[in-house]
Amino acid sequence: MKKIIILASGLLFSGLIYAHPGHGENFMGAFMHPILGWDHLLTMLVIGMMVNSYTLKKGILLPIVFVSGFTIAAVAGASFNFIYDATNWINQATLMTLILLSVINIFNKTISFNFLIAIFGGIGLIHGLAHGLELPSNQPAIISGLILSTVVIHSIGFLLCKFISKKFSQFIRYFTLASGFIGAIALIQTV
Length: 191
What we know:
Blueprint: H1 2-13, H2 27-36, H3 38-50, H4 56-59, H5 61-79, H6 86-106, H7 113-134, H8 140-164, H9 171-190
Helix pairs in contact: 1-9, 2-8, 3-6, 3-8, 3-9, 5-7, 5-8, 6-7, 6-9
């Protein structure tokens, strides 16, 4: 818990509004982008972890819908990357998704799964648009790198939660709440 507080305090007093560097000009740069960007990394880990809240057959739909929305919005966003004024509000929206995932985790069992699917699709659209607007152009190699990285991070989140939650049953709850808190601090910095 002390590490979480120290990290959150560091974020609160740092000038770190945007969490990560650019996408690079190639597949590998794009692949590393979500891994190096803590906002995208935390969001995608949480989504992977939430698969464990349901049967695998049902839970796997959450990251599938996220990746689908992400892909559609990344391609569309790359086509409209001349809209530079949108970058700040879309980055704020990505931070809000961390807060939203925390709230969803608290009320997870009371939310309709179909509604949850729609929310995860929306979160994917927001993250895809954030990446698409920042791309140098609609390059398939860059978008493919982002998508593959997203799938890998979801898988790591799923496996991490699957193994750690056996010893620490509240792991996903604490991880999600800490992620939401960090997202809220970063969001305050952008206002």
